[in-house]
Write a structure and sequence with these properties.
250 residues, alpha/beta, 8-stranded mixed β-sheet, two-stranded antiparallel ribbon, 10 helices, 40% helix
Length: 250
């Protein structure tokens, strides 16, 4: 009887096969980064959000997605187990820390400033790299764009948790410029209630290759089913339709 009780306790302590499968599935994390994902009256929407919903349906799953500050989402995926993050810029420094599942596109990075003012006697629209170096430049905390700015000897960098905070600071004069992916900044201006005509773009310093990426421990089979689901959406026209919806300026 004692042996039976011990065996029963052991069996109860082991995860079920269904639980093992669930734990091995990718849990997607990201921040509010329009047009990829943002909340509208607490309802998620965006290009990759709709992709994940459609891909999850292909896999017979419910979408598993959580929103965090960007730096935390990146760290969770790098250091945790079975996480996925987007839109993550693929860089040499990150290459061996993530598995690069789905290419979301190439995004130019630009400086943005207020149209109505000249920051530090520098007109953002026509400023040279040397002139921009002396400005207060804002980026999202955890962004790989920090490396680009440091490489070009920018020293007065300010960090905020999201683009809404960056835009508020820029509008109020707490920042002279924001360095950002073009598509994210343009979408953030529109979605957070700012006016595009109040801002202007400046120097284009590089481009980012953006991906849906996962933790290194994610299984090859789990990677494969997500890639396959995305291929189905490419073939049936869903990807093209969503790009037209969320990237109308392309």
């Amino acid at each position: 009887m004692k042996k039976f009780i011990c065996l029963l306790a052991l069996l109860c302590s082991l995860p079920s096969q269904a639980q093992k499968v669930t734990d091995a599935q990718i849990k997607w994390v990201t921040a509010e980064l329009p047009p990829y994902l943002w909340l509208n009256h607490n309802v998620p929407q965006g290009y990759v959000y709709e992709l994940i919903v459609a891909m999850s349906a292909q896999l017979g799953r419910k979408p598993d997605l959580s929103i965090y500050p960007w730096a935390r989402a990146v760290k969770m995926t790098r250091e945790g187990r079975n996480y996925g993050v987007f839109p993550l810029q693929r860089t040499l420094e990150r290459e061996s820390s993530y598995k690069w599942l789905i290419h979301l596109g190439t995004a130019p990075n630009r400086f943005f400033g207020k149209r109505s003012t000249i920051a530090g006697n520098v007109n953002i629209e026509h400023a040279s790299l040397e002139q921009l170096r002396g400005l207060r430049v804002g980026i999202v905390r955890g962004s790989s764009l920090e490396q680009e700015l440091h490489a070009e000897n920018f020293r007065n960098i300010q960090y905020e948790k999201d683009y809404q905070s960056l835009l508020k600071l820029l509008q109020l004069g707490g920042l002279d410029a924001v360095y950002s992916g073009y598509s994210i900044m343009i979408s953030a201006v529109e979605e957070y209630g700012f006016r595009l005509e109040d801002f202007t773009t400046g120097l284009h310093m590089g481009s980012a290759e953006l991906y849906m990426a996962s933790s290194m421990n994610v299984s090859e089979e789990e990677d494969r089913v997500w890639r396959k689901a995305y291929e189905v959406l490419q073939k049936d026209g869903t990807v093209q339709r969503l790009r037209k919806k969320y990237f109308s300026w392309e």
